[in-house]
Structures are given as C-alpha cells and as structure tokens.
C-alpha cells in the first residue's frame, strides 16, 4: 500500500492524492490549482500521473480545488466511478460547469487580443466533459458503507466544511494486512451556521489531514458576530459600501444566513444587500434542496417556520451584467457580496475597482486568500492593485473575519486528532509549507505518539 500526493502537498490547492492498494489506484480528489494564472496554468493542463493508474475516484467535496479537474480526467480517458455524497454531486456540477464557462470566456478573450504568432487559447475542458464526469458520479449517503475497489471498504462521515463535504474512512486489506485510513478532505470549523459540526472518524491508523489554518485561531462566534455588526453600523454611519469577495460556495450562504438572522433580531438595520453572483444563486438553490445536511439549529430556526434562510426582504440577487454595473452608480450604505473569493475573477473585480479609491468603503475578507492573489495582496496592505490594466489606489478599509472560514483552525485540528483513536501516522497536506511545518511541530509536541510526515509532491510513501 502506498500514498502519493500530486497536489496540495506543501501548498493549499490542487488536491490529488493517489492510494495504491492491491495494485489498483484510488484517487482522493481531483482538484484544480488556484492562484495567479501564469503560475498555475501548466499545472492545471497536465496530470503528473498516468490516467491508467486510476481505477476509482472519491470526491470529498465540491470546491474547485478538489473537484475542478474531474472533467479533464474524464476527457483524458478515465471511465471509472466517482464516489461522493448526493449534495456534493449537485454542488460539484455547479462548480465544474462554471469553471468550463470561465475557461471558454478566457480563451475567447485571449484569442481576441493575442499577439500575432502567439499560441491560440483553448479551454481545458468544455461543458460536454462536465456531462461525461457527472455520468460517472455515484452518490453515496453519509454513513453507508461502499466498496470503491476490491479489498477497500469506505464510509463517508460529515466533515462540516461545506454542504455535502465528507470525511472518508477506508479499511484497506492487502495480503494479510489491514490498514484503517482516514482522509479529511477539508475539515470544517466547529459551530458554523447551517451545517453540522465535523464528526470524529472511527478507529484510524493513518490519517491524511488538511492544515490550512494549522498555526492560527479563528475568532469565536460571539467575536465574529460583534465584528460584523460593527462593520455594518460603521458603513451606515459614513454612508459607505461593504464589498465582500466571497466564494460562491459556503461562505456566501453562511454570510447570507447570518445577515438574515441579525436583521430579524434587530441587531443591524435593514440596508440593501446584493448577492452579485449567478453561481452563488445556483448554489444557494442546491443548499435549499439538501436540507438533510442542515444542523438542528437551522432546521429549528428556519425550516420549522417555513422561512427561507437565504432570502429576506432587503436581500436582492443580481441577475444581469447591466444590473451588476448599475450597483457602482448607487450610493451607500449597502453590502455587495460577489464572487470570486480570492479576487482573481468574477464580478467582484468591477466592484473593487470602483470602491477601493473611496475611504468610506470597506472590503471585508471572510476566507482564505492564496499567495499571489489580489485578495492576499489586499490583506498584506497593498497600496494599489491592478484591474483590467489600470492601477487602482487602495484607500478603502480592508478587514478580515477569520471565523467565517469554513476550515478548522489549530485548536479544531488538534481536537480532531486527539479524538481519533489508535492514530499512529499523520500526513499533513493542503497548507502553505510554513503553516504545515508549524502545525507538524505542534502535533509532535502535543501528541508525541503520532508520527507526522509532510509529504513531497510526487513521492510515494509506504503505508
């Protein structure tokens, strides 16, 4: 038995982890790399392994950096099953179709303005490749055992990260040896709205764990709520706009839910709130469909009274490009939640180009920003950013609320590890290299019985 990480090893995106058992390959996730285009284009265009080494795929959840390369895998010849929870299948469909659409738009733009003699732009995959990937997807509910490969028994548990996200527990038998293996995908932060808390895996010998926030602590629920209230009240006082670059999946629905609850309770006044993300609206419909994933508080607060947690009186979903552009002509106070989360594409670019020069405005960061992205540069205090070839001064306030992150923090990760019985070996992935290294040292200090490895991309490790 072997484990080889081909993505998210020493970095945060591009999750691809290949388990080899009885000579067969089980791929855990098949995600795209995210970041500055020039840095990730080649990594996304080519698989670092032979497709015929993959006999089955397990998808932990529907974020692009975990599912985004599935259509490319199928386009390259993969014809095996892709296992996920039912909600993850629906979420991944939205994400993959959006990715195909963006790639086609980017290729058209490139070809329209490319220099003579330069290579013609081509999308990595098309909508028909998404269709082909979806035909291979086999939805499996939480807690129902299945057998992705001969000699491998699998069960999904709730990861509490986004809608449908799953921890995967594998019992792998080879010759006269059995190994109980766990894969976190992305582990959720406790006590987040809407979703259940992450579960603890059954007895596990070896764990492949994310470490995105392995050396950080998120704010508490109370701190997060108080901070959001203050941001909104200050925007009202000065008549400013709050621009929230949010992933269309997870953070956007969490923020909508929270603003709804705060408005209903009278903790913030009713001001216009705009959701400027067609993908976000489609994904919100998926949230409404899969109420089996809600926690008891959400069921009690909204579904029992037939209220929609994602729709209320001062909330408007922006449909057309024209409506989106018109928001830039309106005066504050208002809240605009727009994708993409890392400020690398989408309608949020136009809103920031318009809002950043005005000190009355606020940019509210509510999730992880990869190195090299505009979002990270904003967090690091950039005095200006480039949008559409223009340099735009940053005079608006830039604030961050960590507790809206859907990822576990250092405390959550340690608690998860401590609660996992029999754990003897840990592989840390899906974290900036320095963050994963910091967390590895913390684990060695706090839980010395666990052997910790920071896997190198492309290197096979015996299990």
Q: What class, by secondary structure content?
A: alpha/beta
Low-confidence stretches: none
**Helical amount among residues, as a percent range?**
25-40%
Number of strands: 22
Strand content: 15-25%
Query: Any idea what the shape is?
Result: globular
- What order do the strands of the largest sheet run in, or round the barrel if closed? 6-5-4-3-2-1-22
Termini distance?
5 Å
Radius of gyration: 22 Å
Helix count, per DSSP? 14
Mean pLDDT: 90
Question: How would you describe the overall organization of this protein?
Answer:
There is one protein chain. With 463 residues, this protein is α/β, with parallel strands linked by helices. The protein has helices at residues 37-45, 64-67, 70-75, 86-113, 127-136, 221-238, 251-264, 278-289, 296-301, 321-327, 348-355, 374-379, 410-419, 433-446; strands at residues 2-7, 16-21, 24-28, 56-58, 82-84, 137-139, 146-149, 152-158, 166-174, 177-183, 206-210, 241-245, 273-276, 315-317, 334-338, 362-365, 384-387, 390-393, 397-400, 425-429, 451-453, 460-462. The strands form four sheets. The chain has a seven-stranded mixed sheet. A seven-stranded mixed sheet has the order 7-8-9-10-11-20-21, covered by helices on one side. It has a six-stranded parallel sheet with strand order 14-13-15-12-16-19, with helices on both faces. Strand 17 and strand 18 (390-393) form a beta hairpin. Helix 4 packs antiparallel against helix 8. It is globular, with a radius of gyration of 22 Å. The relative contact order is 0.15. The model has no long low-confidence stretch (mean pLDDT 90).
């Amino acid at each position: 038995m072997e484990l080889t990480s081909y993505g998210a090893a020493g970095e945060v995106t591009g999750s691809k982890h290949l388990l080899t058992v009885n000579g067969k390959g089980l791929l855990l996730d098949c995600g795209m790399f995210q970041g500055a285009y020039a840095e990730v284009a080649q990594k996304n265009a080519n698989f670092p392994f032979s497709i015929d080494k993959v006999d089955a795929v397990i998808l932990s959840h529907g974020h692009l950096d975990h599912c985004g390369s599935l259509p490319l895998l199928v386009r390259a010849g993969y014809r095996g099953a892709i296992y996920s929870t039912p909600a993850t299948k629906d979420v991944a469909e939205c994400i993959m179709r959006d990715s195909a659409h963006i790639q086609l738009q980017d290729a058209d733009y490139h070809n329209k303005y490319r220099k003579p003699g330069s290579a013609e732009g081509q999308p990595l995959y098309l909508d028909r490749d998404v269709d082909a990937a979806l035909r291979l997807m086999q939805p499996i509910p939480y807690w129902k055992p299945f057998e992705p490969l001969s000699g491998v028994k699998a069960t999904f548990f709730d990861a509490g990260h986004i809608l449908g996200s799953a921890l995967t527990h594998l019992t792998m038998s080879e010759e006269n040896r059995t190994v109980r293996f766990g894969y976190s995908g992305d582990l959720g932060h406790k006590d987040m709205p809407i979703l259940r808390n992450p579960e603890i895996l059954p007895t596990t010998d070896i764990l492949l764990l994310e470490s995105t926030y392995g050396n950080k602590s998120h704010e508490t629920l109370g701190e997060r709520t108080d901070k959001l209230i203050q941001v909104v009240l200050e925007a009202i006082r000065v008549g400013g706009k709050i621009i929230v670059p949010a992933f269309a999946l997870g953070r956007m629905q969490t923020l909508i839910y929270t603003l709804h609850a705060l408005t209903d309770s009278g903790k913030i006044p009713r001001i216009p709130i705009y959701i400027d993300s067609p993908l976000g609206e489609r994904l919100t419909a998926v949230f409404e469909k899969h109420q089996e994933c809600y926690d008891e508080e959400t069921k009690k607060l909204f579904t029992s009274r037939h209220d929609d947690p994602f729709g209320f009186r001062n909330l408007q979903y922006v449909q057309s490009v024209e409506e989106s552009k018109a928001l830039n002509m309106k005066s504050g106070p208002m809240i605009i939640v727009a994708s993409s989360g890392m400020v690398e594409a989408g309608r949020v670019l136009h809103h920031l180009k318009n809002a950043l020069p005005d000190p009355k405005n606020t940019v509210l960061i509510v999730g992880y920003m990869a190195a090299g992205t505009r979002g990270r540069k904003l967090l690091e205090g950039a005095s200006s950013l480039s949008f559409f070839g223009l340099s735009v001064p940053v005079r608006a306030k830039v604030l961050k609320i960590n507790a809206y992150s859907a990822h576990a923090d250092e405390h959550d990760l340690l608690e998860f590890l401590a609660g996992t019985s029999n754990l003897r070996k840990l592989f840390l992935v899906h974290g900036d290299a320095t963050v994963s290294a910091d967390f590895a040292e913390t684990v060695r200090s706090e839980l010395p019985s666990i052997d910790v490895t920071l896997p190198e991309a492309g290197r096979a490790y015996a299990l």
